[in-house]
Each structure stands twice: as structure tokens, then as C-alpha cells.
Amino acid sequence: MQNSTKRDYQIKRTELFDGDVHLQQLSNHHCPMMARSCCCIKSACGCDSYCDVASTIQVEGELAGLYWYSIDQAFLLSQYSTFSLSFVQANIKLEKYSGLQIYFHEQTQEEKLQRKYRNELDRFLSKGNLTVREDGCVVEQIHLNNLSQEENQDLDCENDLNVSY
Description:
2 domains; three-stranded antiparallel β-sheet; 5% helix; 48% strand
């Protein structure tokens, strides 16, 4: 959530929606799903007192790829700030492998292989940046698209300094 105003906002309760759902409204027809999703987003803002309790994000449910979360505890969204929500606790399994894309030439050449990762998820993971660390060191930061449960995406990183040909 981002507050790009000159004012602090006290958020008392909010609901969040995420997922890979495309809503379309046909001409001269009313789309009940679109109307429902607009009406269900509730956020009560005021600048009264700040509640010190750490906000917890509850998973309310999922329907056809649309995920619904709620925050019932109040929190402060400061002016010109971004509030990052780390509410998706998916178990991500990364399998490291090296890849090579080469065209054959008549000459000898030495190069590094590319570092790649294959992932497996146990639940939906919304798009965003993924930081890959190995032995406590940041190896790469990769942008992921929305991934549904058990959907795999091969992640391409830079050249692997440990593997060459």
C-alpha cells in the first residue's frame, strides 16, 4: 500500500484482493462480479489515535483464483510511505541447475554457464521481486509473474562463476 499524500492515514480495517482474474464488462450488460469486487473493498481511514498493535493479515478465502485477505487491527500509513505486506507465506522450493544456450562454431571458446532455478510452490504467489540468496550472499533479484499453486517457472540468473566450459 502506498500513501503519496502529505497526510498520515490511520487504517482501522481493510480488505485486500489479489489474484490473476480478468473481469470484463460487456456493453449494455451489468457484470455482477465487477460490482461485487468494487463494493467489497472496505477501508476506514481517520487520523485519530495510532494503535501500536502489530497488524496481522488473515487469509479469508479463495474463489476461482481471486484471493481475499483482511487486516482487522489498526495501523498508521505515514505520508509519502509504502507499507509492504508480506502476507503470502508460500513454501518455495528452488532447484538450482546450470543452463547453456550456444551455437556451434568451428573454434574453441570458453564461457560460463548460466545459473538457473526451477521453482515449486504450495500456494498462489503474487507477482513481485524475489531475492535469491546462497550461503548468505545475494545471488540475484528476479521479477516473478503471478504463479498459481504447483505452477513452475524457470528463473534465469546471471552467469554462474562456478561452472564453465
